[in-house]
Amino acid sequence: MATEGQRVVLITGCSSGIGMGIAVRLARDENQRYYVIATMRDLKRKDKLVEAAGDAYGRTLSLLTLDVCSDESVKQCVDSVKDRHIDILINNAGVGLVGPVEGLSMEDMANVFETNFYGAVRMIKEVMPDMKRRRSGHILVISSVMGLQGVAFNDVYSASKFAIEGFCESLAVQLLKFNVTLSMIEPGPVHTEFEMRMIEDVSKKEFAGTDAETLHHFRTCYLTGAVNIFQALGQTPKDIAKVTQKVIESPRPPFRNLTNPLYTPIVALKYADDTGSLSVHTFYHMLYNLGGVMNVSVGLMKCLSCGCIRKRTISPI
Ligand SMILES: NC(=O)c1ccc[n+]([C@@H]2O[C@H](COP(=O)([O-])OP(=O)(O)OC[C@H]3O[C@@H](n4cnc5c(N)ncnc54)[C@H](OP(=O)(O)O)[C@@H]3O)[C@@H](O)[C@H]2O)c1
């Protein structure tokens, strides 16, 4: 149970990836400022988290079952928290979906919205009234760069993240009146099961109903580029956990938080031209015409961002 002065943090989707990374980082805070309730759909998947948490498990970390797609599960979970008191809610649970729209089932698309959009809304709806009453609280959503800029063949995933961005941008204003803060964390690619599942899914799916030309574009232009981008620019769950903790501890937490500075210019493109043509045409060239150049540039960007060249250039000796 949380001790006095500890902030109670509830995180969704902690069986792997970013959710697990955030849970472990906050639970292992050396000043024990957080009491983390790490939740997951199926507690049989808890072992990796428990191992990574080490002696924090049972002390500053406890586990609860929670499926963000079920009203009953969400209510039961929140009701089982002492006095329903949650200081910080981190909406992390999410699923991906890639592929040509014609080849995806409406059921798969609905599942993406049910988890990424309605799942977060369901959580916020359950926790927010208590925060408003107490006039204190912080809600975070693990969104994505794709919630700010659409990416080809990620149409539905991107739409689900745009939806949650729009929802939160609206709600943040109202919540300020109650001293409740809302923050979005917007990672680019991150090495997690998400990425592995995407590659596995794509190799199994036939995308029936998709014409051969589109399928060829998807497999040769998009997939090859996506794998290279993940390899070159991918962050780790630890990187995202570090940014998340910084946001939580900021005296005035920003609403938007891109975790990967290499993506700032991509997002800036759409604001540089209010007709939208600049970003549509730039992405078109990146996808269809600049495959080879892109791969080299991605490697170069990675190299430049690691800082070794800069350090060598400004060395006084
Ligand atoms: N990886 C990336 O490149 C990336 C980039 C930007 C944003 N994000 C976002 O980061 C978040 C975490 O993703 P990740 O990369 O850490 O992927 P991940 O390793 O696949 O983790 C996703 C987590 O969500 C859980 N989940 C799925 N459906 C759920 C449901 N109905 N109820 C409760 N939990 C559910 C999964 O649990 P199960 O074990 O039960 O399936 C898993 O623990 C997602 O919102 C994703 O959109 C990821």
From TrEMBL:
<dbReference type="InterPro" id="IPR057326">
    <property type="entry name" value="KR_dom"/>
</dbReference>
<dbReference type="GO" id="GO:0005829">
    <property type="term" value="C:cytosol"/>
</dbReference>
<dbReference type="GO" id="GO:0006703">
    <property type="term" value="P:estrogen biosynthetic process"/>
</dbReference>
<feature type="binding site">
    <location>
        <begin position="13"/>
        <end position="41"/>
    </location>
    <ligand>
        <name>NADP(+)</name>
    </ligand>
</feature>
<protein>
    <recommendedName>
        <fullName>Ketoreductase domain-containing protein</fullName>
    </recommendedName>
</protein>
<dbReference type="InterPro" id="IPR002347">
    <property type="entry name" value="SDR_fam"/>
</dbReference>
<feature type="binding site">
    <location>
        <position position="67"/>
    </location>
    <ligand>
        <name>NADP(+)</name>
    </ligand>
</feature>
<dbReference type="GO" id="GO:0004745">
    <property type="term" value="F:all-trans-retinol dehydrogenase (NAD+) activity"/>
</dbReference>
<feature type="binding site">
    <location>
        <position position="144"/>
    </location>
    <ligand>
        <name>substrate</name>
    </ligand>
</feature>
<feature type="active site" description="Proton acceptor">
    <location>
        <position position="157"/>
    </location>
</feature>
<dbReference type="GO" id="GO:0042572">
    <property type="term" value="P:retinol metabolic process"/>
</dbReference>
<keyword id="KW-0560">Oxidoreductase</keyword>
<dbReference type="InterPro" id="IPR036291">
    <property type="entry name" value="NAD(P)-bd_dom_sf"/>
</dbReference>
<dbReference type="InterPro" id="IPR011348">
    <property type="entry name" value="17beta_DH"/>
</dbReference>
<dbReference type="GO" id="GO:0004303">
    <property type="term" value="F:estradiol 17-beta-dehydrogenase [NAD(P)+] activity"/>
</dbReference>
<dbReference type="InterPro" id="IPR020904">
    <property type="entry name" value="Sc_DH/Rdtase_CS"/>
</dbReference>
<dbReference type="Pfam" id="PF00106">
    <property type="entry name" value="adh_short"/>
</dbReference>
<comment type="similarity">
    <text>Belongs to the short-chain dehydrogenases/reductases (SDR) family.</text>
</comment>
<feature type="binding site">
    <location>
        <position position="161"/>
    </location>
    <ligand>
        <name>NADP(+)</name>
    </ligand>
</feature>
<feature type="domain" description="Ketoreductase">
    <location>
        <begin position="7"/>
        <end position="193"/>
    </location>
</feature>
<keyword id="KW-0443">Lipid metabolism</keyword>
